[in-house]
Amino acid sequence: MYSDFLFNINQIIEENDLEETSNILSRFAGNRPFFALDSGITCNDIWKRSKKILQCIESIEDEDKQRILKSAIHFSAGIMPDYDSVENRFSLVEELENTIKDFKNSDDPFASRLIAIGPCGIDHDWESVEYEGRIHDYFDTQTIREEKDLFALQLTLGKKLDMPCIIHSRRGFSETADVLKAVKWNKGVVHGFAYSQSELEFFLNLGWYISFCGTVTYSGKKNFQDMIDAVNYVPKDRIIIETDSPYYAPIPLKCVRNEPLYVNYIYEYIASKRGVPKHKLSETVDKNIQKLFGLE
Asked: What are phi and psi of 133, to 5 degrees?
């Protein structure tokens, strides 16, 4: 009933093990989700992710939960910006394209479930949990320009393959906007939205869907009111919800490891701010996902 637009199973497995990840997915299956998307961060990790998720699902004893997860789980494939990916952007995006084609044409049980490119984009968040240990030199002018190239190459691939893209944008709105205006491929989702209403209007005007994660519940954030305004401003037909687990657990679980089941708290919070029942918000999100990805 409560879909999780985006999580990161590979990172969850690294923090735990296959057995505990199976338990995490089993708990999530209790939601009876319509949709869940596993996110990649390198050009060819889809093979490993698919294999591990299948292992986790098949180790769940409850056959109904197995069926639910096999029906709900989909995948994206993309390249997140770091030193190596930025420096080797041309060869890696070429490998990403070949990987997508090979996977879709394979006999992998999830071959038809690879439906999006990304997350890809711009990350200038000094404290981003995904990039612990980055040094300040990462943000020099040349690297930022090359980071924009990496993003543009993946958007262009989305256009070429007619695949929606998932945008990751943190403290880099102007660079993100530059690339979107240049490439002109505006089909997909801005995930983990973390800007204010003016930036929100830019993305909406281009046609992007907007996804909120657990950070929207953090009342101590400086832009907390901006986030409330954004939650209320997004049109009904563009809103999506995710955990981005294992990162950014929602209140009241901020200090614990996040997991897909906790998407319930985000639905509850956003539903209260928008003045709608939680189950109605869930139906709306599912319809939006269904429309964006052409799912039956």
From this structure: 95, 0
